[in-house]
């Protein structure tokens, strides 16, 4: 799909400086621009590239003043970075704008769906499934019985959504994610063997949540595992049964959260963090990557390490960690000197 500079300027409320009929069909970084691509300049560090890029159109701040002659067409806007981000969102919407029901699919007679939906080939919609308007379900998606998916949500290829799951509006579930599998519930008997504990709850995902590829969210034993609105989950995260994650919390890849832990609002959790079960993590908590959390955390705490300690204390201690070999050597020398003095 091609767009002219004039069309793009219309989308961004910008003005064209150059050829309004210049066409682009792809996006590029300014240093990698090729003919027919659109790029942007917002960081002054990249200014030299605008004089040698092969891109056809560049989005720039309206007060940008070139120091050399330019051949590239410019679109001047209030904020080049924000405008390019807006354009990326628009481009993504156009790219994902599929509609209709492909063949073959299985849709239960008791399932229902709204207007302007897309259901890709080899997808499965079970009994009493309810799909809202403008939902996109890509090929090879499984949606179990009694699930609900709200308006504008996108379920990418290969995702699996187990029965009774409730997904809100404008939720993105990426490939390979599994929502609603059994929680890790087993009880040992007197012989040391394990008996499965039925997981009879569900998963509730509120509006505007993003779930990365390969992430797994387990159903509750009783009640619900809950992901509150605006939460952003990276790829390959494990969320166990009865966990609750507060609004607008962001969690990086390979983090594991054990059962029944409650995480507050607006937290930032780094990659490969491990959080044990039945904890309460406050609001606005910052957990650095590879930390191990074994205690409750209060609002606004920042921690690092395993087991995690206060972030500032960790940084002070790390200075000594690095010097341990020298310190050991100094102690050994002092002991030798003490022995020689006797």
TrEMBL record:
The keyword Transferase applies. Belongs to the transferase hexapeptide repeat family. LpxD subfamily. GO terms for cellular component: membrane. This is UDP-3-O-acylglucosamine N-acyltransferase. Homotrimer. Signal peptide: none annotated. Pathway: Bacterial outer membrane biogenesis; LPS lipid A biosynthesis. Residues 22-89 form the UDP-3-O-[3-hydroxymyristoyl] glucosamine N-acyltransferase non-repeat region domain. GO terms for molecular function: N-acyltransferase activity; UDP-3-O-[(3R)-3-hydroxyacyl]-glucosamine N-acyltransferase activity. The active site is at 241 (proton acceptor). It catalyses: a UDP-3-O-[(3R)-3-hydroxyacyl]-alpha-D-glucosamine + a (3R)-hydroxyacyl-[ACP] = a UDP-2-N,3-O-bis[(3R)-3-hydroxyacyl]-alpha-D-glucosamine + holo-[ACP] + H(+). It is an enzyme of class 2 (transferase). Its EC number is 2.3.1.191. InterPro entries: Hexapep, LpxD, Trimer_LpxA-like_sf, UDP_GlcNAc_AcTrfase_non-rep. CDD domains: LbH_LpxD (cd03352). One of its GO terms (biological process) is lipid A biosynthetic process. Keywords: Acyltransferase, Lipid A biosynthesis, Lipid biosynthesis, Lipid metabolism, Repeat, Transferase.
């Amino acid at each position: 799909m091609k767009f002219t500079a004039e069309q793009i300027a219309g989308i961004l409320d910008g003005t064209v400086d150059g050829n309004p009929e210049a066409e682009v069909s792809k996006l590029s970084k300014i240093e990698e621009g090729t003919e027919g691509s659109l790029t942007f300049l917002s960081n002054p560090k990249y200014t030299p590239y605008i004089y040698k890029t092969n891109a056809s159109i560049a989005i720039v701040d309206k007060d940008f003043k070139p120091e050399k002659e330019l051949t590239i067409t410019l679109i001047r806007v209030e904020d080049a970075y924000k405008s390019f981000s807006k354009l990326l969102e628009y481009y993504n919407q156009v790219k994902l704008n599929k509609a209709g029901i492909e063949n073959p699919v299985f849709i239960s007679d008791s399932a229902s769906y709204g207007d302007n939906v897309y259901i890709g080939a080899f997808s499965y919609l079970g009994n009493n499934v309810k799909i809202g308007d403008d939902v996109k379900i890509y090929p090879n998606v499984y949606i179990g019985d009694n699930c609900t998916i709200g308006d504008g949500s996108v379920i990418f290829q290969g995702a699996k959504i187990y029965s009774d799951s409730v997904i809100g509006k404008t939720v993105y579930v990426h490939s390979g994610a599994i929502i609603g599998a059994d929680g890790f519930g087993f009880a040992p008997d007197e012989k040391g063997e394990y008996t499965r504990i039925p997981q009879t709850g569900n998963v509730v995902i509120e509006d505007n949540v993003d779930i990365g590829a390969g992430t797994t969210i387990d159903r509750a034993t009783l009640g619900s595992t809950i992901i509150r609105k605006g939460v952003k989950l990276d790829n390959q995260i494990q969320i166990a049964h009865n966990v609750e994650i507060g609004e607008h919390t962001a969690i990086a890849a390979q983090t594991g959260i054990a059962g029944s832990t409650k995480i507050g609002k607006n937290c930032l959790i780094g990659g490969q963090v491990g959080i044990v079960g039945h904890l309460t993590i406050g609001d606005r908590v910052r957990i650095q990557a590879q930390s191990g959390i074994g205690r409750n955390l209060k609002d606004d705490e920042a921690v690092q390490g395993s087991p995690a300690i206060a972030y500032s204390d960790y940084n002070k201690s790390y200075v000594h960690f690095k010097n341990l070999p020298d310190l050991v050597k100094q102690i050994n020398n002092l002991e030798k000197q003490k022995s020689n003095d006797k």
